Protein: MICA1 monooxygenase
Organism: Crotophaga sulcirostris
Amino acid sequence: YPTWKRTLTRRAREAQMKRFCKAQAIQRRLEEIEVTFRELEQQGIKLEKLLRDEEGTLTNQKTQWMNQLLYLVQKKNSLMSEESDLMIAVQELKLEEQQWQLDQKLRCYMNKEEALKTPEDRAAEQEILGQLLEVVNKRNVLIHIQEEKRLSEL
């Protein structure tokens, strides 16, 4: 194996491990968000019951409960936004992995000498190139969605 092939193989493995670690971190965070959603839901239910059941409660106390309820709603909305961002990141990771795999297949065909390629090889190469372009376009759409979301939040 020439040195450059070993280097490329090592870098590909490193990139794959990075994607894997990032996917694990995203999965953990999504699970944390799910747990937090449940906790916020329980707190919200308690506050709602307090607001509905306590007829003789001071207005000051009701205002405080209402503010707490609004805070919970705000926190839940923030978590939903983060969850949405994470789901986009998951899709982006999947497309990245798909792009890497297609790129590897394409390299195999492109490394073959033109004289040795069969018509099936050429057709497969064109098909893989088309799939690769499709994946790149999907990634571009995700980036565009993220940018629009970021601008709308500003």
